[in-house]
Amino acid sequence: MSKESWQADEREIEAIVAGRHSNAFAFLGLHEVAGHWVLRAFVPHADTLNAFTLGGTPLGHMIPRHKAGFFEAKVDITERQPIRYEAKNAGGSWTVYDPYSFGPVLGPMDDYYIGEGSHLRLFDKMGAHEMEFEGIHGTHFAVWAPNAQRVSVVGPWNEWDGRRNPMRNRQGIWEVFIPVLGTGTIYKYEIVGPNGQVLPLKADPYARQAEMRPRTASVVPDPTPFTWTDQKYMEERATRDWRRTPMSIYEVHLGSWRRRPDGSFMSYDQLAEQLVPYAADMGYTHLEFMPISEHPFDPSWGYQPTGLYAPTARFGDPAGFARLVNAAHEAGLGVILDWVPAHFPTDEHGLAHFDGTALYEHEDPRQGFHPDWNTAIFNFGRKEVSAFLTNNALFWFEQFHIDGLRVDAVASMLYLDYSRQPGEWVPNQHGGNQNLEAVAFLQRVNAEVYRQFPGAFMIAEESTSWPGVSAPTYAGGLGFGFKWNMGFMNDTLRFMSRETIHRRFHHNDMTFGLVYAFSENFVLPLSHDEVVHGKGALLSKMPGDDWQQFANLRAYLAFMWGHPGKKLLFMGQEFAQREEWSESRALDWYLLDAPSHEGMRRLVADLNAAYRSLPALYDRDCEPEGFEWVIGNDQANSVLAWLRKAPDADPVLVISNFTPVPRSHYKVPLPKAGRWVERINTDAGWYSGGNTGNQGAVIAKAVEGQHWPAEAEVYLPPLATLFLKYEPA
Fold it and tell me: Which residues of this protein are catalytic (predicted)?
């Protein structure tokens, strides 16, 4: 039988059957050929195939052209429309909807903005989205793989066979709408690289849900919109200037805050029931979660993510995470996420060499490989990569009402020679070591977040003296709202770890932070990094016997809460966890049965209450007008005293004695005569201290001929910090 003009070429049929065809959409489905409408389908396992319109009109019997399951027929139809097939073999019959009879979901404006790198709704377009399209329910898939010869969606429904659902290539974006597939469908992408090699199956970079590790497939998420009940919180948030608002952050690793009795993870809902009320009762303003983006390896703590758009399946589904955020907001708590745009792991199912080329990373290992973490570094200069990461930040704020992102490892992004020796890095176009592309990316993402989400904020974990980290982008800054003050953490912990008799020689470790305290908007962090890798818990860093260790830690925490800057404390340190933190077990909550540990917890709750209720302690946290030294040079006694001030608020005196020697009648100059009430005394019996102090208040008397107009004699308990609030007569 001679081949008719409308029939497919054998070579193209073989290419489809072998999975080598680079443009299946131009061949499969419904096409006008030589003046006829022709229908072509590849349905493995089918012996016969009959075609119908969606409305049920029969289109005829399909002619088998290849024993692997390729069929073809000339059909009587007037226009392109979706097609379904009835397939049969000896085992039975089944219905197949033809993905290649549907038009594209992405439109020309998507093509334009994606090509320009300026699309700010990529999370609505890329990845897997369940939808109704051209009259039928299914899922649209889209993925960026510009150098691939072929990309297919694979999963259990097509026996992980990459020949069966190849995608349409739109200028490097591959897409396909597959009817019937919906919520819970497990899928990956099979990619044929530019050299014709089939790559290891890839998870979806834009997947909103993923399988529980060690499985690595992506999951089609439930498209049902979440019903938020946090409108009041969001409206109030939009009016906040966080520089002049209390910010006390409880840093939490969700997998080890608490565990179920059998040792397994708590769910997002259980955390909403237990963590949220605990943090609210403790007086924190924000919860900060170590990364919850999907990641394969528990000991990475989430800092090596493979699924930046997917809340980890360890604790439940995305709706569960939304319920956790919603519960936090209803309790008055903001939620900050640790975010990792600096680098990504090289797991074969992830972003590394995604389409067979260095797509998300640099090809040159001097730019694209991170020696500290054995990870790949994002190519921030590539517009598609910048858009991927910028959209990811916006996604968390929009979809999950996140209040802030704390950006991890910013220093590693800013410096081309970070952790590299000479010759191991590539200078920028001016010959310098600044990563100008990373700077541009950070400025872009920060500007977009502040533009789109009033009251939201961005925090940089930046460990160098890069200028203007928290300066606005229009002034040439990076545009963050806040910067972690790593110097404060290192200097003060070094001082506190010394034997008290030696502290007089290192007094400047406690005062140096005030030299630069207002050069940025700072968060003072006592983070997870200080209680891992052999560093021990905060309590174990303190010198002396058990009593002195607790007294030192109480004095230190109050020193920090009285110091200018926002506050952050890692979980467990609020009750003086003794063991070094491990992600593999829960905190030692039984310690709260001991008075000294319960006393520490009470102190942190009271510090939060004082901080939130006294405007002098927060209203000028980031401005020099809010701070004034009273005693900064008493090295001999290791005593420090300063005032915290705010407009239209009574001042607060903070005074610390970092020796175990009590000091009676210690003279402290003050700005006002009158009664100064003891608001915090870390030696109080309520905190399991020695219960010495000033009987609730001191009286400052007017003096003449001195720099300050008043003076008080104060009793300084050993290893203690006091907050004294001026009380007008």
Answer: 408 (nucleophile), 461 (proton donor)
